[in-house]
Amino acid sequence: MENKYSANIERINKDFLWVERLSVLMDSRFRIGNFRFGLDPILNFIPFAGQIATFIVSLVLVTVMYRNGASGKLAIKMLLNVTWDALLGAIPFLGNIFDFFNKANDKNIKLLREHYYENKHTGSGKNIIFLIVSILAIVITLLLYGMYALSIWLYHFIF
């Protein structure tokens, strides 16, 4: 009789292999000379739909990794990689070039290996979330202040 733990390890190994294969397909399956690329930059030539499709695939990969025991800190780092890839990839023309060089899924596989084999990226990730929220709050505050200062300047300029 097979115990529950070994069945879980088999599922983790199976899922890890699936995630790794899909990650390679998305980021580094094809090769021209020494340069490797995947479906991600190719699909991103389809405006909007390609970006959404590759973002969803990357989110599924992160979800599968998290389901198989990736720490909260690791999941947040992987989500940041995926989000950064999607945001910068959405910039017309420059985003397409960026997508050929930024391989978020490959980075996430590297992070996952470090987590499982080297016991890195453990913990809840609360500090990362706090840092992100703090930076966003500062940026939003500066933007609001800038808009206020601009509106005052425009008011005095016009009247």
Automatic annotation (TrEMBL):
This is DUF4112 domain-containing protein. Signal peptide: none annotated. The chain crosses the membrane at residues 45-66, 78-98, 128-155. The keyword Membrane applies. Keywords: Membrane, Transmembrane, Transmembrane helix. Pfam families: DUF4112.
